[in-house]
Structure to design on (178 residues):
């Protein structure tokens, strides 16, 4: 079926990306997890590798398998790039064209549909800088921001900032592939 790059960033909601990866694999898709270094403070490469059935990329040091850098190879073969969860930091880097890690570098080399699923503290989401970065990303061709949802957040804050449900994430990724 399709080749999906699941970008995972530093948010407490990163653990939910494991379930998304598993569901996409069970639907027959090829899933490659590319994590920011901070994402690995919330979810382990072993978990993601087991569920995705592919090696996890989290740094440029992981790219020693062949002569083509893995982030470039994945950018060329991916049918969709889904950032689950999308942190304020990663969204800012991508909006401004910064590439401090393998995920943001892959983003700059990728030319297909990009789905952002934000998850962060509500005050962070509502900050004018985050809203400006989200608007920049949403205005780009084939870019879509889904969420965040309202509800109780891990930090105790109640409001907008939750990652949308896994069903909505999987559905949006499958729709982007259609």
């Amino acid at each position: 079926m399709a080749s999906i790059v699941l970008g995972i960033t530093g948010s407490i909601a990163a653990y939910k990306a494991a379930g998304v990866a598993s569901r996409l694999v069970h639907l027959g898709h090829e899933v490659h997890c590319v994590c920011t270094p901070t994402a690995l403070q919330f979810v382990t490469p072993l978990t993601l590798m087991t569920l995705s059935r592919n090696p996890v990329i989290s740094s440029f040091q992981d790219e020693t398998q062949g002569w083509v850098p893995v982030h470039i190879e994945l950018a060329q073969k991916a049918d969709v790039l889904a950032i689950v969860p999308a942190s304020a930091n990663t969204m800012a880097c991508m909006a401004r064209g910064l590439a401090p890690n393998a995920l943001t570098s892959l983003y700059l080399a990728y030319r297909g549909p990009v789905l952002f699923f934000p998850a962060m503290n509500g005050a962070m989401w509502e900050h004018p800088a985050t809203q400006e970065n989200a608007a920049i990303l949403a205005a780009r061709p084939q870019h879509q921001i889904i969420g965040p949802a309202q509800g109780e957040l891990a930090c105790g804050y109640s409001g907008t900032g939750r990652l949308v449900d896994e069903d909505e994430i999987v559905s949006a990724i499958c729709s982007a592939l259609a």
